[in-house]
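Researcher: Hi, I'm a grad student and pretty new to this. My advisor asked me to get structures for two proteins we've been looking at. I'm not sure of the right format, so I'll just paste the first sequence and hope you can take it from there.
Model: That works fine. Here's the first sequence with its structure tokens right after it:
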Amino acid sequence: MDMGLNDKVVFITGGSRGIGKACALQFAEEGAKVVISYASNREAADDTVRQITERGYFCKAVRLDFKSLETIPAALDEIVSTAGKVEVLVNNAAAMVGNGPVRAEFDTASIDEWFDLIQLNLYPTAYVTRSIVPMMKEAGWGRIVHISSGAATDGFAGGSSYTSYKAALHGFSKTLALELSPSGVYSNVIMPGFTVVERHLARISPEQMEVYATNHFTKRLGKPEDVATLAVYLGSAANRHISGEIIRVSGGK
């Protein structure tokens, strides 16, 4: 299938590791000009760029830190000047408070950290999207893919701030789809289930992974490539009629 992505400019926030990196690799294989952002781990970003450029594809990394909003305009200016106007946006990056999501029951969690996690993610995501949407409308074509989480609808104990942010993406995307689809700009959400990424490998044993896998119809856990495959389709010209949807990639969990 021709995905119609050759020379399309694709911007993936948080594209140096995990799901973002898998998206970068697969978009590049379709001939897209891929730009990824990183917050602080320049080494990981450079490694992703190297893997893609060694295969003969275009890839560039820009620094964009959700905790430093002043990095956003500079990153977008750099993208446009070196790659062109963004035609596909994958909102994948997420900033964390401290060592990760606020893991405390709602009535005992620090309310400041609770609000911080939402503010650190929802506002920058909206800021990036708002900056790019005019480029897409001007071109009469664009695709926005938001990477959410199954936790947005299923919840998890101690994760009310994280799940609130991810759930907010659903309403945000639905409204974008309503407003922008007539202009040829589509917006969709992907909800991954348990996906084996670096942070899981660091703290969950292989034995526990096997237990988790038994709860899935497919009897295996998700891989970043599983999410990336759908992201590439939704973000491509092959997607002619899907907008405003929220789609699970969870192996039936």
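Researcher: Oh nice, that was easy. Here's the second one.
Model: And its structure:
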Amino acid sequence: MRTFFRLVAAVVLLVLMGLLLSPGGAIDSERLIWDKAAHFIAFGLILWSLGVLFRRLPRTWAALLAIALGAAVEVVQRYIGRDPSWGDLLADTVGVATALLLWVIWRRFRPREAFQASNA
């Protein structure tokens, strides 16, 4: 099962990076909220992918790496015909922070330990 999750995480990371770095057109103002939502979700998934692929990497370091990746994407977008945006980087950061918070809540809940204790 671990191999399956690692494969899924690698595919998710590669697909998202491909989408983030592909040439694209300008975003209409009415679609702007969906662009930010897409960045929010994408970088939450990027943090999940980094956590699965690099299990021994502390989550705070993975979060910093994901945010640095978001900043690098914004710099590269300038050279591939897309508009870099501080708003996109903010949405990336909020997505990473939300995913990190969900991970902390999940770890405090510890459903596996509760399940194992009830079966002992």
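Researcher: Is there anything I should tell my advisor about the second?
Model: You could mention this: The chain has a mean pLDDT of 87.
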